[in-house]
Structures are given as C-alpha cells and as structure tokens.
Amino acid sequence: MRSPANNAQLALLLEVAGTPKPGNVDRHRDHPDLHFDHFLAGAVGSLSGLRRAESGAPVGEAFEAAVEGMSDQRGGNTQFGCLLLLVPLVRTAATGDLTRERARETCEATTVADAADFYRAFEHVDVAVDDPPEGMDALDVRRGADAVPALEERGLTLYDVMGRSEGDGNADEWTDGFPRVFREAERMLDDAGLASERGARAFLRLLAEREDGFVRTTSGPEAAREARERAAAALDGAEDPEDLAEEFVERGINPGTTADLTCAALFVALERGLDV
Amino acid sequence: MRSPANNAQLALLLEVAGTPKPGNVDRHRDHPDLHFDHFLAGAVGSLSGLRRAESGAPVGEAFEAAVEGMSDQRGGNTQFGCLLLLVPLVRTAATGDLTRERARETCEATTVADAADFYRAFEHVDVAVDDPPEGMDALDVRRGADAVPALEERGLTLYDVMGRSEGDGNADEWTDGFPRVFREAERMLDDAGLASERGARAFLRLLAEREDGFVRTTSGPEAAREARERAAAALDGAEDPEDLAEEFVERGINPGTTADLTCAALFVALERGLDV
Predict the structure, then answer these.
(1) Which among B47, B62, B100, B110 could disulfide-bond with B158, CB atoms 3.0 to 4.6 Å apart, if both were Cys?
(2) Chain B: residue whose CA lies nearest to A7
(3) Per residue in B245-276, pLDDT tens?
(4) pLDDT score recorded for residue A274
(5) Under an 8 Å CB criterion, which residues of B touch A?
(6) Do the Cβ atoms of A194 and B37 come within 8 Å?
C-alpha cells in the first residue's frame, strides 16, 4: 500500500515513461541536454519534499524541499511544475479524502510564508517563465528570495500569487480545485491498459483541449496554437502521434504544462485505485 | 546530495532504463507480463526497506521489507536479486567507506535471524530458483517461513546460506566482497556518457564474461551458454546488440542475474561520484 508521497513519486516516473507524449522527454525520446535519466534522478530527489507534504509541513516549505531535491541532477528543470501541482494534492490526500473541494481548501489556506518559499524554490533551478505583468516587476519569480519583502509588504499568500498568474495552466488548476486534473484522473480510471499508456493518452487529450503555457513561453503563441491543433488531429487519427512526437522534439516544441497536468492526474488516479 | 538509500533507488531505475540490455526489460522493451511500469513501481516500493538498511536495521529485516514493498505491483518479481545485493551495500555505505572489505564484513556479520528474514522474503513474490542440492530439501527457499526451524536447528546465518548457493552469480558476490560489482563500478566511472548508457555497457561486459544463473534456471544451460557467447560477440562488434535484445526478448532468454549485478555496480558508482 503506497502512501500519498510514494504515489506522487510513482506518478512522476509513470508520467515521463508514458509514450508518445509529443514534444516531451518520454520513454523513447530525449532532448539535447535533458535526458530520461535526469527525470529518474528528479523523481528520486523529489521524494523527501513530498514526504514533508505528507507529514503536514506547509505547502511552500514542502514544495521548496521537493524542488531542491529534484534539482540534484544535471538536466536542470525536470519536474518543477509537476511538484507545484503534486504538493498540495499530496497534503490533501494525507489528511483525508482527495476531493476537488478539499484540494482547493488546501490551496486557499496557504500563507505569505508559503509564497516566500515558493519564490525561494526558483533559486534552485532555472524555470522558463514569462515576463511579469505591467507593474509587477517586484514580484517577478525570477527574483527568487529578493522578492520576499515585496510579497510580505503586500501580504500576498501563495494562493494570491497563483491567482495573479491567470492564464497559466498550472495556476488555473491551483486556484480552482484542479478541475482538469480530477477529470483526467477519472478518464484514466475508465481507460484500459498500463498506467503509463493511460498517461500518454491523457496527455494528448489535455494538449488537444487547451494551448500549452510552456510552449507559449518557450516557442511562442504560434507554436502553442499549432501544438494544440495537431494534438487534436492526432487524437482524431488524422496524424500519427509517433511522427508528431519526433517532429516536436526535433523542433523543440515541449508541452511541459500538459505534462505537469498529466502527472497530477496520474497521482489522483493512483490514489483512487489505478493499478500498476 | 543523495543518501545511500536514495542512490540505491536511483540505481534500480537507471538499471531498468539502460538499453539495450539483451533479454531484459529495458527502456525500449517489455516482457509479455512484465512491463517497465512494474519496475518503476518496484523501485518506489523498495525504498522503505532500503532506508531501513541505511538506518542500521539488520540486513535480513531490511531486505524482507524492501522485497515486500517491491512486490506492491502486478508484474511479480522485478528486483528481488537487485535488492539482495543492494541491501548489504547500502548498509555498508551508510556506516563508513564503501569498500569491498567492509561490504564483506557486513555480509559475514549476518545472523540466523537474517537468514530467517531472507526466507520470509520469498513469501512476498514468486522467485525462479533451482531445486535445492541433494539433502537440502528442508532449506529450499521456496518453503519460505516453513524453512525457518531447519535454519535455526542448523544455526545457519544468511552468510552461510549464501555460501551454500555456490555457483549462483549473486551468492558468489555476497560471500566474496562483491568483486565483479566493484570492478564494474570502476569501469563505469572510467566510461563516458549517461549513467544508464554506462549501465547497459556494463551489462554486456558482465554477460559476456560469465553464464547468467537466471537464464540457466529459466531457459536451461544451453541458453545460458549461448547468451554468454552472443553477448561476447556483441561486445566485439560481431553482433548488433539491438538485434540481440529483440531476439532474446522474443525467445524469453532473460539474463536477470546480470541485471542484478549491473544494478549493484550502478549503486557503487553513484556512491563514488558517478554524475546523473
């Protein structure tokens, strides 16, 4: 019987193993400087932070610890976004039923100290993010701990910070009880086959449904639109997802936000009895 | 900075990810009822036993806990042999220098209680083993806990039990300070490339050097001889290791003992600074 932290670690591993996930590192593909091995080490290193979340540590503290552990490999940012979703979900699962309502409460209950730890987590690893909105320079996450005084002055909790990142796929989940994550977890449970295969299919559904924020940030809005449309075509059988995976890796189109959601959905599905 | 238990978990993951490892489940191949996902779950589940070894629990107790956790997936025996090698190595690393001499001392210091826990571990999962030697029926590992009275009556420690399994690749390592494991760890450190790739090359060297006990047990002595000879040919460039991997998986020739040694060598290499 796996604990929530162990299921979260397994979700990190099953997520990266699922293939094809067009544009991602997966069981069959690597990026030039980011390899499957780095994701394995990231999952190993993340566990101690995930265990802190399970033991009732504050969300921000557990997240920072998970990111620090994840970063103990040479690939850079492997699972920052996954952990941002997993940590409140693990904490929720460890204290009672893993429901959307309780997950939302976990996020709403975060404090300014959680926000400060979230900012500190950016010091452990380079994360690709957009420029902050007009007038928000003081709260640019890339400032790391230097942004903490501004956070404290304005009394912003981690939930508030996420609320100001409207339009980011992960932040939208965070502030609304993880609607897409829970929906995909249910679809995975209704699906057939191995867990990693169910994850790969969920990835394609999620990408076909909404433009990926990480693609928008790293490859631009055109690429984000194209990735969504072509995932939809792959889902309809009009494109071969294996070919799409080759092409997107070749072109550096990496739907990282969609991978984060897939990982979180795998976690919820495992907690709800998905067999491995 | 990964602890010994974390490095052991990472070694389990890097081992199964390495490809091609002719005949094994690896990053690119599954067996009919044994899939990459099962190895991921096995590595997740093993950790709590590995942590016990790190905290100073007796070798047998830690091993049984690791096997129990490993078994929490549908594939059956994924990493029993790996854990048999890893547990004393983790315990050795956690208390001082990880040397052959100290590893041998860890094994020599095992007790009858360790042997009893080793036998109990066989109750968690089906392990393919040979019939016991003449007159040793009472100590057939397949008896599990039922063999414990016979063990106690004869006062056999786990080290003694391993000593009576002469000719088994893992037992020979166990009773002699892990000579092949430490040698391959050094070769891995001298090699270049990603950790999982170094593991796959070590696998081929180990298989080319000595007949695999698991192949002998499950596919017979002819297959064991052939696997060794063809691995040697692959190492010399006379065979394509990818083709060999396809063929061995097809024919069910699975060099599991060689995979165990590869995993243990990865662990020693990680402890000695192999980068991931």
Answers:
(1) B110
(2) B44
(3) 999 999 999 999 999 999 999 999 999 999 99
(4) 98
(5) 1-2, 6, 9-10, 13-14, 17, 27-28, 35-38, 40-41, 43-45, 47, 72-74, 194-196, 275-276
(6) yes
Q: Is there a domain that residue A145 lies in?
A: yes
Q: What is the pLDDT of residue A213?
A: 94
Reference A78, options A14, A23, A35, A18; nearest CA is A35
Rounded to the nearest 10 degrees, how much is the dihedral formed by the CA atoms of B55, B46, A82, A217? 100
ipTM beyond 0.95?
Answer: yes
Closest chain B residue to A195 measured between Cα atoms? B37
Identify whether A276 is part of a domain. no
* Residue A184 identity: E
What's the pLDDT at B134?
A: 81
Residue of B44, B51, B54 to mutate, interface with A, max A Cβ within 10 Å? B44
What distances in angstroms separate CA B273 from CA A105, B4, B186, B190, B235, one per listed residue?
43, 12, 11, 11, 26
pTM higher than 0.90: yes
A131 domain residue, yes or no: yes
Encoding tokens for residue A119? Answer: 């900012």
CA distance B169 to A51: 36
Which residues in chain B have Cβ-Cβ distances shorter than 8 Å to A37? 14, 17, 194-196, 276
Residues of B whose CB is below 8 A from A275: 74
What pLDDT score does A132 carry?
85
> What CATH number does residue B154 fall under?
1.10.4200.10
Dig out the tokens for A122 from the structure. Answer: 């950016």
Residue ranges making up the domain that contains B174: 4-271
Distance (Å) from the alpha carbon of B256 to chain A's nearest alpha carbon: 21
Asked if B6 and A37 come within 8 Å (Cβ–Cβ), the reply is no
Q: Is residue A134 part of a domain?
A: yes
> Residue B159's closest CA among B129, B94, B114?
B114
| Mean per-residue pLDDT pooled into runs of 10, chain A (276 residues) | 96 98 96 96 98 98 98 97 98 98 98 98 92 86 94 96 88 96 98 98 98 95 98 96 97 97 98 97
